[in-house]
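In keeping with the milestone schedule agreed at the kick-off meeting, the structural modelling team has produced records for the first pair of proteins. Each record is given below as a sequence line and a structure-token line. The laboratory manager (R.T.) confirmed that both were archived under the project's standard naming scheme.
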Amino acid sequence: MADVFSDPLALFSVKGKVAIVTGASGSFGALAAKVLVGAGARVAVVAGKAEALAETANECRKLGGDVLEINGRPDSEEACAEIVGKTVAHFGRLDILVVASGKNDVAKITDMAPARFLDVMDANVTQSWLMARAATAEMLKQGEGGKIVLMSSARGLLGHPAGYTAYCASKAAVDGITRALGCELGPTGITVNAIAPTVFRSPLTAWMFEDNENAQNVRKGFLARVPKGRLGEASDLAGPLLFLSSAASDFYTGHILYADGGYTAG
């Protein structure tokens, strides 16, 4: 660990580290990949949408990054093992896992077929667990610890009136995985934490940022609960990501870091 007095910023260094980012075509995944690359990490970017994945990879390369593209999803034991295997074969090791893949499906409980509920649970919970499992096996083999960062949400703690039973349940389960793995892996030097934002700008939430009466009314009601007085931007997640991916968070594990402008505080 860096000397906290002579070079405190070195605590946040990920230079030379090898990271996997799943969901790298999404808003948080793309940001995570670019932040890690910009900080000097070598990154395997993973996504099912080949065109969007290539765009993220090219943006990372423009930042001078050493990037590996893996077109696929962490939707099975075999797929996750392949993602880790390709990363290690290319870069020689694995230090950081960021699981940014997932989905939402909004519907009242009486309108949501069980298959739709299970699909959200699979994308957000099972795939997070499978990816963490594959990364853990490699990190334990290396014997040098590691960083696992999962994607949660304020909805893992709080309910929502507009048909969020699947999403809220899935993110609460991600929180449970984070805490349980944090306890399980604590002695190994592998930390497991989650970032839990509230609403932040993405293609799915772009309508909330629009300048029309409906969006303004929705924002007004929502922002009454946000002490910072604004909606989130993807860039608001950059600091928490770098913290949880670096030695600065070595004593933090099983922690849910709320990047929510104070939303869950009141």
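The second protein of the pair:
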Amino acid sequence: MIEIIQQLINGVAIGGVYVLIALGLTTVFGILGIAHFAHGSISMFGGYLTFYLFVEKGVPLLLAILLSILAGFVLGVLIERLAYRPVRDDSHINAFIIALGLTMIVEGGNLQLFGADQLVIPTGLNHVYKFFGLTMPELRLYIIMSTFVLIVAMTLFVNKTKVGKAIRAVAQNRDAAVLMGVNVNMIPMIVFAISSALGMAAGVMVGSLFAIAPGVGEGLVIKGFAVLILGGLGSIPGAIVGGLFLGTTEALAAGFISSAYKDVIAFLVMIVVLLFRPQGIMEKS
């Protein structure tokens, strides 16, 4: 039982990363219906940028993280304005091609700017807490707490603020939102800004907990889409539940079967859910 609880704790930290990735993907998909494949590479850019500011330039870690998240906001605005807005009213295949092109551009940019070496953000959070036979690394604890804060902030923003309610209105019925005076040109830009910022935060967590390297972003976005399918396309609560479920399932598989099979879990989840409950476990919010 102790081992099961230990793996569940480990899975919550990993699942928190998946939640942040999926939240960014689900907000974009819910508003624009775009499969934003470049999201994983953007997340890696957040990890790379934090490493560069912290290690190479000596910026304090917390400030480096905040600057990376702020850069994510700006990057999201640029992506929406320059890449997706021109094809917003065109066939969905155009946005699909743009998404694939962006993935290669961002991944290539990461490679040119930061090199091909595997990098780990040295947070210095090396203490291990022990209680009742369980262990909790300090870094994982901070990741869990940070994820919780970001989820609560995102939930309050979407449900309580005027902009958040406008985002939900556009997601539910764009034409009705226009009639109610919602600026439907501004909402996609805000959504992409928030999505990229969450992705950058997830990239920092990946760089601290595991490592950042070329190709990691593609695997991360696959996990994000697995969570999307599991939770329900466009559902924010579904993204939260799905991310935690996938993270804990992977941790249990790695702990009791083999770590070699944990990445297969994402594909199995997608296949099973698509076969038996294609709408996901929760309705679109």
